[in-house]
Specification:
This protein is mostly helical. It is built from 6 helices and no strands. The two termini are 30 Å apart.
Amino acid sequence: MNGLTWGIAAGVLMVIYSLVLYLFDQSLNTSISWIGYVLLVGVMIWGTLEYRKSLPGGFMSYGKAFSTSFMIVLFAAIIASIFSFLLFTVIAPELVQEIAEMSRQQAMERSPELSEEQIDEAMQMTAFFMSPTWMVVMGFISQLIIGSVISLITSIFLKKEDKSFV
């Protein structure tokens, strides 16, 4: 239950952050997108510590710390993905085209030797991946992967072993 509760809290926080970015026309600003992960990590740590406090003696194994953190990430990612789908299909469908254009500009900057036709060809090949559904699925998967890595690392510090039986 703890993972669900804190996961919902993290998901809602991430949605609020995304809405603020959208309202201030900063949704595509990659220099501040990392703040969402800082918020997520903060809630993961806080939620796992709160759960640890509720356990007898406050002891928690590495595995339990990881599973608690991962459940927080899982539920946060589900909520964030639902919001992203609504953002890309209902609230601001123009964002998908803006992301595609930003990708085009980045391709031109990274590979100035490419001709306009080559860039057009590359964009046509990636058009499938620029659909709202695919973007949400890939976002969900990447959040789970990044969240798993973060959970693996933070659990090292969040565990509290009972040394009285050693």
